[in-house]
Amino acid sequence: MLGFLMDDALSGYDIKAKFELSVSNFYNASFGAIYPALRKMEQDGLVEKKVVPQEGKPNKNLYQITDSGRETFLAYLNSPLEAALVRSDFLIRVFFARYAAPEQFRGWMEEERIRVQASLDTFREIKRRYPSMDPFEAKTLEFGIANAQMQIEWLDREIDLLGKDGMEK
Amino acid sequence: MLGFLMDDALSGYDIKAKFELSVSNFYNASFGAIYPALRKMEQDGLVEKKVVPQEGKPNKNLYQITDSGRETFLAYLNSPLEAALVRSDFLIRVFFARYAAPEQFRGWMEEERIRVQASLDTFREIKRRYPSMDPFEAKTLEFGIANAQMQIEWLDREIDLLGKDGMEK
DNA sequence: GCACTCATGTAATCTGTTACATGATTCT
DNA sequence: AGAATCATGTAACAGATTACATGAGTGC
């Protein structure tokens, strides 16, 4: 959140949108996490709230990062790199698929393929729409594309094997 | 946990070891989660505890899955597939790397490369050591290998670009 | 009329981690 | 002597989700 606030003053709603549009594939936050965190950061002097009245909409609470907030963010960048946290229901099911029916297994593979293809399409659309994107942001996008492509290749190999097994019967 | 108990009666300690050795790359659990979960499952009749006295070691609490536990596990396999949860500190740092020093960025890339290479080595060692592994378990291992390879290729491309930039100065 | 976007917030709950406590045995 | 393995468990806390509550405007 502090990272997003480095450039602009944003509301909780804006921050949520930023997450969704950019880093949602490797980090996300819900409103129930964002609003309390903003209040806490305000108390800690990392951000300052400015209420912006709006017509026909609720007031917008714009949060501006303070010098202390910038320091905190830069201190985070200097802190030790943490290992990624992954929790994949899909891979757990594949791991235990010996207890599943073949159609069930095929269903998971096809569902996952659709999901990964959809995110790949989204990545490519973002790449097309924002050609002057920050080069570092672009790197994470390229990572996402490479990752999705690898997954699709893996899924297609496995789905293809299923097709062959099916033929033999 | 129920998945691991489908084949054998296991202790909390054993279950932890199973996680570490097999699915830890896409799912993990700590003792503080496992022990309370086992007691809860016992209360719910999904598992049955059998205390096995041991010499020189604390008693082992072996948990055996019940019919109800098997049903619950199979019901899970029939439940809707959930999206994966990912939280990558590394990718967040890359995303915001315009606020970081070039040496900092290089440090993250190299650290991540070492980390991924280590897990790739572990995967290959597991593959070598367990040639008769369950085919579905093997699929998740192959996924892990493909994933690690893709990441190393991406990291090497980026590290290589850094080298070139460095030369120009 | 319905769904979606904009906009904020709370409360209950859940899930999970970390640290602590205990303690014998085995390996280096 | 010290570290690691085996083995279980609790308590404090952290982090986060989900659902609820409110409400106007916009697009189909």
Automatic annotation (TrEMBL), chains A, B:
Q: What is this protein called?
A: PadR family transcriptional regulator
Q: Domain Transcription regulator PadR C-terminal spans what residues?
A: 86-162
- Spell out the InterPro entries in the cross-references: Tscrpt_reg_PadR_C, Tscrpt_reg_PadR_N, WH-like_DNA-bd_sf, WH_DNA-bd_sf
Q: Where is the signal peptide?
A: none
Q: Which residues form the Transcription regulator PadR N-terminal domain?
A: 2-73
Q: Which organism is it from?
A: Alicyclobacillus dauci
Q: Which Pfam families match?
A: PadR, Vir_act_alpha_C
Gene3D superfamilies, per the entry: 6.10.140.1570, Winged helix-like DNA-binding domain superfamily/Winged helix DNA-binding domain (1.10.10.10)
